[in-house]
């Protein structure tokens, strides 16, 4: 059987005894914000999770990422640790086309329990789906196996993802791969100077993966933005020029700066300024954080991507924050199957997010983990 996926939408995450959620089962509904005009909104494409530090917002992102990470080979993420405790389930709605037949499908992936945390048996109609794909993943000593409740549809997705891992992208913005991926940007996503041991080599995690993490960039050469740009320059297929144009437009449009194509002789990339030039690692914290997020998203997303950004305002003052949200919204409009979930503890960001303002092509959602925020 061949599987094609489209219209990928995150519906729900359920956690039991994971991280700070120890006292009761905690459910996060990722639908848009209901209103009198739209009492039953579609799943959100842009979702804000607001909470004080230590109240579980990072756990939410790591749990979504970790459930998909169990499909990686080897498994990655918080649930790949044999010492992990608790149960987690993620539910996604999508269009699945199998051997030419398309059906709206609910996918449930869970771990830590022989039984699903959310039983959709009697709710498929209300979820507006025609079939239910179930995938219970357990792991021991780094080996993933199917747990009780896994059905043929769940196995099919797992096998398709495993078979595609490592396949190199041929276009930016996910146009060459439609299998799903989850990209996690932890709070620390700085760009630091890479190793002086510079060679032309395939970047780490260049091929398709169901779950990816891009934290502080460097100092390992294979994980650096410098190496990514050098690799694209070596491929010489037009993607480097497209990526640099995108980065310059989103980061430096108002600042009279510009990333220049890498110098192959030096294996290094520079930024032109009104007074000269400097290396990438000499950008400001805000510029470096944006460079990491924009470049990795453009190069590693697929047609069906969930983008997770922890502490979205880290390293960013208000100008950069406004610019980042605008860029994310533009990505969502251009890529209808992309979803973005970001966390913050900053109430001021609610004004920038402006959940009541209607924006074409974007469905906004949000969740307040607890009421008393400083």
UniProtKB/TrEMBL annotation:
<dbReference type="Pfam" id="PF13304">
    <property type="entry name" value="AAA_21"/>
</dbReference>
<dbReference type="InterPro" id="IPR051396">
    <property type="entry name" value="Bact_Antivir_Def_Nuclease"/>
</dbReference>
<dbReference type="GO" id="GO:0016887">
    <property type="term" value="F:ATP hydrolysis activity"/>
</dbReference>
<protein>
    <recommendedName>
        <fullName>ATPase AAA-type core domain-containing protein</fullName>
    </recommendedName>
</protein>
<dbReference type="InterPro" id="IPR027417">
    <property type="entry name" value="P-loop_NTPase"/>
</dbReference>
<dbReference type="InterPro" id="IPR003959">
    <property type="entry name" value="ATPase_AAA_core"/>
</dbReference>
<dbReference type="GO" id="GO:0005524">
    <property type="term" value="F:ATP binding"/>
</dbReference>
<feature type="domain" description="ATPase AAA-type core">
    <location>
        <begin position="251"/>
        <end position="350"/>
    </location>
</feature>
